[in-house]
Amino acid sequence: MMSLRRILLSPLVGVTSIVLLLALYFRSSFKSPPQHNQRLFSAEELALYNGTDETLPILLGILGSVYDVTKGKSHYGSGGSYNHFSGRDASRAFVSGNFTGDGLTDSLHGLSSSEVKSIVDWRGFYSRTYTPVGKLVGRYYDSQGNPTKHLKGAEAKASRGAQLMEKQKIEEDKQKNCNSRWSQDEGGKVWCDVGVPRLVQRPLEIAITGSMSKRCACFEEDQLDQSGLEIYKDCEPLAKSCKV
């Protein structure tokens, strides 16, 4: 008992304890902040990397994520066919095809869930193909580099679009699509190997694309009493092929 007391009261043990306490104190007080390797860009800063300055890399933004596309310089550099995407976030143009003026914007207002999904898929393409270098502060990332409600909303809409498209595919696989062909000389033609062609509504399409559409499906004779089946114009009711 005396030897243990002597050890505990030893100056060496006291010094060691103090050193350990100080080490713990400094470790907690001066802990390194999280390292953010990616840069935060303003729109003005990103615009400098549009391929006109040969000494700078070429950068592109999509949904607020910024990628170095310099290795695709022939496409994204000055005079390249995709140069309109360089130095900015023109997310909307990836699906609108409007590469001038107001079309070169990051706003997705009014786009359908399938169009938003397509833009998210494009972001995936750039993530796989090019080097991510930062975030664009604005609509999709705040000044701390955190995702905004706009980004979360876009991703949720894209996810919903993917679910609807999968559901539509499952439903439409139950009724086989028509075969189709088009040529400049003969025009269009649809036909069925089994059954006869009918136009049918795609009920999920309005939720996916924002507009109604129809498809050609093949129905056997005992299915033709279903509602909503439309015969092609100038086509015989039991014809296996129709001009369109």
Automatic annotation (TrEMBL):
Spans through the membrane: 7-26
A molecular function GO annotation: steroid binding
Protein name from the UniProt record: Membrane-associated progesterone-binding protein 4
Pfam families, sorted: Cyt-b5
Keyword Membrane (UniProt): yes
InterPro entries reported in the protein's UniProt record: Cyt_B5-like_heme/steroid-bd, Cyt_B5-like_heme/steroid_sf, MAPR/NEUFC/NENF-like
Alphabetically ordered keywords of this record: Lipid-binding, Membrane, Steroid-binding, Transmembrane, Transmembrane helix
PANTHER family from the UniProt entry: MEMBRANE-ASSOCIATED PROGESTERONE RECEPTOR COMPONENT-RELATED, NEUFERRICIN
Domain of life (superkingdom): Eukaryota
Family: Belongs to the cytochrome b5 family. MAPR subfamily.
Residues covered by the Cytochrome b5 heme-binding domain: 41-137
GO terms under cellular component: endomembrane system; membrane
